[in-house]
Design goal:
It contains 14 helices and 16 strands. It is of the alpha+beta class and 458 residues long.
Length: 458
């Protein structure tokens, strides 16, 4: 039976038991993808029972040596009580094994540890708010090596890994203890057991909060801006603050959310950015705050909106706060350059323009594509590339002898100041180019951002 060229399940199982001590679960796991719908324990027990019946049949048919050899494997390496009873009846001596080759190290079975692992996980999550979870594990290196060796030696192609089997059993028992939902795609918590170091680790996945902000004053950057002279360490130039500007939009919004969620840190993601000297009005700029390792997930979002406004001394207003997810964040970032944005600007010219010059510039800058090379003022932090951007509409109106008002409706990612000035030929065409006068933006307000995010509510 053992020497066939294309061994079946029983022949392969007999060979395995002849070489290795295997519990019911680990034997059954080697054939896990055959006749699914039962447990590995049941599968392994059934295989051993059939082999025991086969051994008894062979012995009774007269081929005692072959039958007794199979029976010895089942009673010894198989640790199978029906085979042990039969071995006693036929007075068969065999070497009895006590631990499984594939799930035990130092006389300890990994699966026997699960109830205690669950207790530790429950204790470690007592003050943690979560509603979905997933179980994971890191197998002992010795067990992983043994598994690879057995699979390769016996060409086992229908087996399940120890990790997969262990994770499923751990997940079942955690589900009963937590009373929470298992989520394979976006769990809020992952409980990972490290077999080799006997450690239970909690992977607390981030909390994502979406909203829109309005920036009501100039002089506040979107993100923290460290002093360039000392790189944030503190020096005379920054009065030992380490910062060029004392505050930021991201901190005003994110710190109160981080505090409420009891998180460890935050990341602020916005759909584009406005200059430090520009306002962000209208319905606001979409953003997502990502909170690392939150211990609270149910937040009073209307209260947070009021707190942010108060903490910022009305410099920043937020609205529409709601929970979201990483997929929404990724869409927000990827679509920021495709959004349509509207701006109003005050433009200073070096000479007085005629009405015809203003009207012609409007016409020639509306519904066009322009080539915009990375502006000089941001070249230190952005790749020097030429980007093609669409200009949907430009409206210009004389305000004084050397001043005009401008309205711009453009593709996201367009630099408006450079669309106005031309940036020494790096943006073509430009307002300055069309009116034949040097033009400088002295005031800029983002008045609207039309994004696709409204169609992607999580």
């Amino acid at each position: 039976m053992v020497g066939r060229e294309n061994p079946g399940i029983l022949d392969t199982a007999a060979c395995l038991l002849e070489e290795y001590p295997l519990c019911d679960r680990c034997l059954g796991r080697q054939f896990a993808w055959l006749s699914t719908g039962t447990s590995n324990d049941q599968r392994g027990h059934s295989i051993k029972l059939i082999l025991s019946m086969k051994a008894d049949e062979i012995i009774k048919s007269g081929a005692k040596d072959e039958g007794r050899k199979l029976l010895a494997s089942l009673a010894g390496n198989g640790m199978f009580s029906p085979a042990q009873t039969l071995a006693e009846r036929v007075a068969l001596d065999y070497e009895r094994s006590k631990i499984c080759h594939l799930c035990a190290v130092d006389d300890a079975c990994a699966f026997d540890r699960i109830p205690e692992i669950v207790q530790r996980a429950v204790r470690d999550t007592e003050d943690l708010e979560f509603y979905t979870f997933l179980a994971g594990s890191i197998p002992h290196s010795i067990l992983a090596e043994r598994e690879d060796e057995v699979k390769g030696r016996h060409n086992l192609i229908y087996g399940e890994t120890l990790r997969s089997d262990f994770n499923r059993e751990l997940g079942k028992q955690l589900h009963e203890a937590f009373g929470k939902t298992v989520d394979f795609d976006k769990p809020e918590l992952v409980v990972v057991y490290d077999m080799q170091n006997d450690l239970v680790r909690l992977q607390i996945n981030p909390l994502f909060i979406y909203g829109r902000y309005r920036k009501m004053v100039v002089g506040v950057p979107q993100s923290r801006w460290d002093c360039a002279d000392c790189n944030g360490k503190g020096c005379d130039a920054c009065h030992n603050t380490g910062r060029r500007y004392p505050d930021s939009i991201s901190e005003y919004i994110s710190l109160p959310i981080q505090e409420a969620a009891k998180g460890t840190r935050f990341k602020f993601h916005a759909a584009g950015r406005e200059d430090v000297d520009a306002l962000m009005l209208g319905s606001g700029r979409p953003f997502v705050v990502e909170i690392s390792k939150p211990r609270a997930r149910t937040l009073n979002l209307p209260k947070l909106e009021k707190k942010i406004r108060k903490k910022s001394r009305k410099k920043v207003e937020v609205g529409g706060l709601r929970p979201t997810n990483r997929q929404h964040l990724q869409r927000l970032k990827s679509e920021s350059s495709e959004n349509i944005k509207e701006y109003s600007a005050i433009i200073k010219t070096d000479r007085e323009l005629t009405d015809d010059e203003v009207r012609r510039a409007e016409r020639e800058l509306t519904n066009i594509d322009l080539d915009q090379r990375t502006p000089t003022r941001v070249a230190h932090r952005r790749s020097d590339l030429t980007r093609k951007k669409h200009i949907y509409e430009v409206r210009l109106k004389k305000k004084g002898s050397h001043e005009i008002e401008g309205y711009f409706k453009v593709q996201g990612g367009t630099y408006i100041k450079e669309l106005i000035s031309g940036d020494e030929g790096r943006t073509v065409p430009s307002v300055a180019d069309k009116v034949g006068s040097a033009c400088v933006c002295t005031e800029l307000i983002v008045t609207a951002i039309h994004s696709l995010e409204a169609d992607h509510n999580p």
